[in-house]
Write a structure and sequence with these properties.
about 325 residues; Thrombin, subunit H; seven-stranded antiparallel β-sheet; mainly beta; twelve-stranded mixed β-sheet
Length: about 325
Amino acid sequence: MFQNSNTVGPFLSAWMLCLTVTLASPLRAQTVGVVPVNIFGDGNPLNGVEDSREQVMAGPGGGGNPEDRQLNSGTITCDGSFRGTAMVVDTREFAPDLEGVVLVSAAHVLYNLKKKRLFRRCQFHFMGWESDPGYGSKIDFKLMRMGNFNPGQATGVFEFGEGDWVFLYLRKPWKYFSPDQSLRLRDFSFAQTESYRQSGGEFRLVAFDSSAGNISQSRDCVVVQSKGGDLGGGTWKGQLLDDCDSADGASGGGIIAVLNQEYYLIGIRNGSHWSELLYPADGYPAGPPDGSVWNRLSNTNFGRAIDTKLLFEINQFIQSHRP
């Protein structure tokens, strides 16, 4: 089910900052290491790495690039260390009177995967501005809704990645919060991907880049729905494959659709898949090298779509926190 024996053989699946799993068959998984996700290119290491990421230029107090100010996200730190990215959700279409803030991220960001439990204390920092206390908020684990992610079992089940999502409610947002510092959610039809791009639409990934120390965006990405025969196998509805450049820190980042200067959050970054036949563990212990070619049959990042199910879940979650 996870294997295309005619094309790529067994494949390697990985989460950024999480477990890497070789699925030799649908029924057996073996933990082999820890790696980030991928930065893609033309496959020629002699001409450098084609990394498309660029810093999101949004400054405190409303400064920076006006366009970039719509790409609202931040970082999650837990037990004193950086863990991943979260996106700020516009809740006004669900509940105009909501007093707090809702974040969307990947569930695995909140877990100590070695100990298979939640971290003890986590905090959100808007746009990664950790040094400014006016842009930080405490995360309360009692105020969250999570998919069926299980750190001890998720890599061995057919639904791998499907439940790797979490909604977080911040009862007290950061000091300088504005409702305009948020992204609208949309259930996007990926059967219309090509027509969307032909009409001027664009896909991006917005996430923290730990090497540069800032929120970055990878622009003009290819985003497709996984189906039978590719590395995702079409195993669960809503699995997105993409070539958006990302590395350490991008777990929980947002897959964004942009059209006519409107920005919509349509997916959550989870991790990556690649062919172990092309990138065997003994020769590529950290997975495909930066600059490797993107191909849905051999090397790709993946994410969880914001679909009808997640829109229902987040609406229920938001309604439960209304005054």
